[in-house]
Amino acid sequence: MAAIEVEMLRKQYGNLLAVDNISFEVSPGEIVGLIGPDGAGKTSTMRMIVTLLPPSGGQIHFQGKDALRDMSLVRANIGYMPQRFSLYQDLTVEQNLRFFGDLFDIPPGEQKKQMEKLYAFSRLGPFKQRLAAQLSGGMKQKLALSCMLMHHPRVIVLDEPTFGVDPVSRHEFWEILHELRKEGVAILVSTAYMDEAMQCDRVGLMYKGRMLAMDTPQKLLSTFPGELVRLPVRQPEKEYAWLCEKLGDDRVQLFGDGLHIKLDDALGRQALMDVLADRPGTTGALQQIKPGLEDLFLYLLEEQHE
Amino acid sequence: MNEFAVSVKDLTRTFGDFTAVDHISFNVARGEIFGFLGANGAGKTTTIRMLCGLLMPSSGMARVAGLDVYSAYEQIKQRIGYMSQKFSLYEDLTVRENIEFYGGIYGLNRRQIRQKTAELVQYLGLEKQVDQLTRSLPLGWKQRMALSAAILHDPDIIFLDEPTSGVDPVSRRNFWLLIYELADRGKTIFVTTHYMDEAEYCHRLSIMKDGRIVELDEPRRLKERYGRETMQEVFMEIVNRKGEQ
């Protein structure tokens, strides 16, 4: 049985269709990621699932039960970390955890056990007496996650939980998610980081309320049409503008390590070489690369614009 | 005059017995895009606050646009632009009102403000939205607008403190094209980010750890030296390894 099952879910704000008939499931022990530009409908979708926002249409099942009818069941058994999670800054790490334990009526003995486990998980143990206000960004996010795990939810929903967190702390945060997955927790998470999306079992790309694609990262990547080459450049913005003009801006993307150029039947390697012949020293540097999730993301969005 | 845009030597700041910034030294050339990386809590924000004239150093030397942070902190503020992840835009003002407000703050006169508003609105392609509430703009546009507001007074040096946190890949690219353009016009860009692919866009990078600068080089050379393919891997190695002393 799926932990979360969403069917033809829809949310309308006035004239704006924020979520446009999307369907997907999240199973126990599975991490499902949502990616997409701002305003794609990720947050609205999550808020509907956790019963904070009434849908305009469609169905949500939570562990097999109708989530829209049995909201208190959902709320008691789900963990939700919104984009801007408000920890109590003037409470210590331990007080924050206890507060959330009390909110969910967890008996003191049980709370103590869960806290020990969470300290080990999050490595926040040495900081239990520190005020939340004095934690670094990465530690705050781990505390927020710990707070929402106090009541042992089997289903958790995380809205960009690593917003503004450095790479090392993000890595630690995701280690915790992998640990929870092993315990069979169902996880729905949105992210703007493609390396995080790659760690999901399945990833959905949302755009303008629609689910453009959802599959395992590997399967998604295999749908990238044609091949991809990388051109290292010295002056990225100039070379980018120049190549966009020559090739059309749906083929060329700016990356930190150079420009990524999509080749297919309409533009083969030789044709690209001919274009680059105007610029001495560039052709020799062309390298074939494997597309990443970000390449695919950009490609799918370009396709929508056409 | 071959003065650096930012020049720092043995800069230190302590809070009680905690040393947030510990004898750091570096120079940033004019027109350079300088990436300032580090884990959360490494001392980046404290450094930026000192360079912007918002926080006095405990010791050491720092000059910004040739001005001394100890004595000329008021003049420094007129020569720099600052934008952070927490935008400074007023959500309940319209686009036009925000620009007018910042123009006023930076001491532009009415005519200059009118001219700047027209320039900016056209540049950002916001003609249709100019009288809409800022709240209603997509995040990516707000970001570009916040950057534009931060440079209304035509500063020499622009500090960007995690300007793209939480922004999708398409908007981040547009934002970086804007940054390149500014650098091209001779502006110096001092930027912090947690996106390591963005770090690769910088001309040079410094990596802070526990208040010290532990690496400073071009991204390409750092990757070569560490034998890694991406800055993400380099960063993880540096921050983890040096943390295990």
From TrEMBL, chain B:
<dbReference type="Pfam" id="PF00005">
    <property type="entry name" value="ABC_tran"/>
</dbReference>
<keyword id="KW-0067">ATP-binding</keyword>
<dbReference type="InterPro" id="IPR027417">
    <property type="entry name" value="P-loop_NTPase"/>
</dbReference>
<feature type="domain" description="ABC transporter">
    <location>
        <begin position="6"/>
        <end position="235"/>
    </location>
</feature>
<keyword id="KW-0547">Nucleotide-binding</keyword>
<dbReference type="GO" id="GO:0016887">
    <property type="term" value="F:ATP hydrolysis activity"/>
</dbReference>
<protein>
    <submittedName>
        <fullName>ABC transporter ATP-binding protein</fullName>
    </submittedName>
</protein>
<dbReference type="InterPro" id="IPR003593">
    <property type="entry name" value="AAA+_ATPase"/>
</dbReference>
<dbReference type="InterPro" id="IPR003439">
    <property type="entry name" value="ABC_transporter-like_ATP-bd"/>
</dbReference>
<dbReference type="GO" id="GO:0005524">
    <property type="term" value="F:ATP binding"/>
</dbReference>
